[in-house]
Amino acid sequence: MGEVVIRAAPEDRALADRLADALHHEGMLAEVVDADLALRRPAKAEIVIWREGSVASDALLSATREAFDADRLIGVRTGKGFPAPYSANACTDLSGFDGNIDHPGFCAIVRAVARHTLRAGPPPRAGRLRPLGMIGGVMAASVLAMMVFFWLGMPPG
User: Fold this and answer.
1) pLDDT digits over 67-96, tens only?
2) Which of helix, strand or coil describes residue 15?
3) Could you tell me the CA-to-CA distances from 118 to 23, 28, 41, 114 in Å, in that order?
4) Which domains does the chain have, with CATH numbers?
5) What is the CA radius of gyration of the chain?
6) What is the pLDDT of residue 12?
7) Contact (Cβ atoms closer than 8 angstroms) between residue 74 and residue 109
8) CA distances from 116 to 25, 35, 46, 82 (A)
């Protein structure tokens, strides 16, 4: 298993796949599994997607209980409801999520996954320049330029 497992009822599989794709875009290993699938190796975080109708799913409730007991649960809802007592566990609303990584609920999930996987924060997005890398590059170019000017300014011999 990857670092993140996403469990959902069959009717929420499309949402789970969009969420996994968006997490992959952010550099996180995410895998969608059936709610009743026993994990061979526990993931660092388990995202469980709930909606009003899925509260009746024994397999999803069992997976939620197991993730909650192991302190790996990241609760996600798409509308009303998350089964008690898990609703107090910072349930994130993903209503209307279409794969956009700027969705507020998705941003909250990325932060929660980062906490569960012991990262300081989400990985930088591809193409984004890191400030320290820019400063280091400018300093290296300045030192190189000074060396060239001193070398050119020295008399031959």
Assistant:
1) 888 888 888 888 765 656 655 456 788 888
2) helix
3) 16, 12, 18, 6
4) 4-116 (3.40.50.10140)
5) 23
6) 84
7) yes
8) 18, 20, 9, 20
Identify the CA nearest to 62 among candidates 80, 84, 35. Answer: 35
- Residue 66, H or E segment: helix 58-69
pLDDT at 94: 85
Structure token pair of residue 59: 């397999």
pTM (predicted TM-score): 0.67
Residue 113: in which H helix or E strand, if any?
helix 104-116
Burial bucket for residue 129 (CB in 10 Å: 0-12, 13-18, 19+): exposed
Which pLDDT belongs to residue 48?
86
Element (H, E) at 147: helix 131-153
- In the numeric block, which tokens belong to residue 86? 């898990």
Least confident of 3-17, 63-77, 131-145: 131-145
Rounded to whole angstroms, how far apart are CA atoms 9 and 34? Answer: 7
Tokens of 66: 């197991």
Per DSSP bridges, beta strands 73-77 and 92-93 are: parallel
Question: What is the mean pLDDT of the segment spanning 24-41?
Answer: 79
